[in-house]
Amino acid sequence: MTRLLRDRRGAFGFAVLTRRGRVRYRRAARDERRSRAQHDIVATRFIPPLSSDAHGVFHPLGTDRFGRDVWTRLVYGARISMGVGVPRS
Fold first, then answer.
1. Is the pTM here over 0.90, yes or no?
2. What's the DSSP call for residue 42?
3. Mean pLDDT over residues 28-36, rounded?
4. Cβ 64 vs Cβ 48: under 8 Å
5. Residue 52 near residue 58, CB atoms below 8 Å
């Protein structure tokens, strides 16, 4: 370990990995708190297109059986597909 930290490149890499680990730990803790504060999923199930839920959130394509916004899922899927397809063409 001391040999690694004596080398400048090794010390830099160690610092980057340590910082990255701390950031991931903080994000996980923050997301856990946020998930506890999540609104009632049952209330947002099967909302029809072009309507709002009980919390006033507009869903252009409605929600699926788990209360997930269909438009958001479509956009994320298209982003991934474009990321794979565009570089190949």
1. no
2. G
3. 61
4. no
5. yes
